[in-house]
Amino acid sequence: MPQIRHNETIDTLLQRRSIRAFADERIDEDTIFSLETAAQHAASSQFLNDWSAIRIEDPDIKQALAQIGKQPYIAQAPLLYVFVLDEHRNAAIAQQQDIDVNSDEFTLNSSYRFSQAQNDGAFALHAMETAANSLGLGCVILGSILNDIDRVIDLLGLPQYTYPLLGLAIGKPAQNPAEKPRMPRSMQFFVNQYPQHDEELLEGLQEFDEQVHQYYDLRNTARPVDAFSAQIAKASTDKEVLVRNFSHAQRQGFELDK
């Protein structure tokens, strides 16, 4: 059987947990500078640097984001960022180079650039999260801020050609959650091509379901977590996610049909 090769970086990644309770301790400026610099060193497609991150220090904005996300711990995080897909800066640079951003020749608002900037923002967020974890801090990624995209856009004053991606809450952990089970490698890593038969693809699912069902999430310690299959079945008919579509992108100037 293959064995994991351990070093500081791999162990930091393997020990990753989502932390939703933080000690009431400020994050010092050197740490903030280190985390932001680490995020800037993430990969950037075509070197477009088409993301930005807004550090939220205003308690009222924190509280508003907590209400949007329906998660009180968002407002309690010592360090809170919202990562933003950002082609506005590049559009401003293009205008300085005499590009007409209102013409049909302008493509920074296209579906490809939108997707590309999403990826780059996620890379940067993950780099910041990993850096924070390596310094002994805890984090939780906040997809919940997308519950009300229009309100987030207004709260953060996001201009044309920007779009909220994810939040990241950071602080000294005040909880120690158990490691969440991970899917068997055979269900996620394939050689040369995707499995051609679902029976092969789902081999190992029953054992994974049992492992997940035995896991207790600190958000609800009174009962075990639903089996993975049950979670997927529920998610597959969850209509609440339909409001998190990209219809809001048109308001921000993106044309996702081109």
UniProtKB/TrEMBL annotation:
Coiled-coil ranges (or none): none
Residue ranges constituting the Nitroreductase domain according to the UniProt record: 14-172
Molecular function as annotated in GO: FMN reductase (NADPH) activity
Record InterPro entries: Flavin_OxRdtase_Frp (IPR016446), Nitroreductase (IPR029479), Nitroreductase-like (IPR000415)
Superkingdom in the source lineage: Bacteria
Record carries keyword Oxidoreductase: yes
Residue spans crossing the bilayer: none
UniProt keyword list: Flavoprotein, FMN, NADP, Oxidoreductase
Entry-linked Pfam families: Nitroreductase (PF00881)
Enzyme class (EC, first level): oxidoreductase
EC number: 1.5.1.38
UniProt similarity note: Belongs to the flavin oxidoreductase frp family.
PANTHER family, A to Z: OXYGEN-INSENSITIVE NADPH NITROREDUCTASE (PTHR43425:SF2)
Official protein name in the record: Nitroreductase family protein
